[in-house]
Design goal:
65% of the residues lie in helices and 10% in strands. It has five helices and two strands, in the order ββααααα. The termini are far apart.
Amino acid sequence: MVNKTQLQLRHGTKDIIYYMQDESSPPTAAQLRYILLHNAIPFIGFGFLDNAIMIAAGTQIELSIGLTLGISTMAAAALGNLVSDLAGLGLAGYVEALAARLGMQIPDLAPKQVDMWQTRVTSHMGKAIGIAIGCILGMFPLLFLSDDEEEKEEKKTKNHPNSD
């Protein structure tokens, strides 16, 4: 149940009645949806950039430094993750500016509502959903990478057409 406070203003000869949400009442469902969306959008960008840069950098590290130094694929992936994290530090401001350009205003909540568990859980859910979507979208560099094992199998099949 949402507690509401009634505010009555005189405007000319008409009384205008506003209902303001009480500070102690939990955020409405619409406010919670907006909080989730407000937190998800920038994290889609973060997840996308993080994964895309990590995959591209890890691949290049494996194909260059990895072959020269003989490091494992996992070590190359870890170094790609390092490059991605460092790039994320530099790109964070740009991602947030882009999200602000989309017109996402800070949710209009009372200070007590910001600290309520519903708001915190919804905010974290939005961030988690955003990161998950962004990371999945950020896997697009994998579409351009060929799998060496698949190529070897195809060559084997072409050389021996009767083998199944």
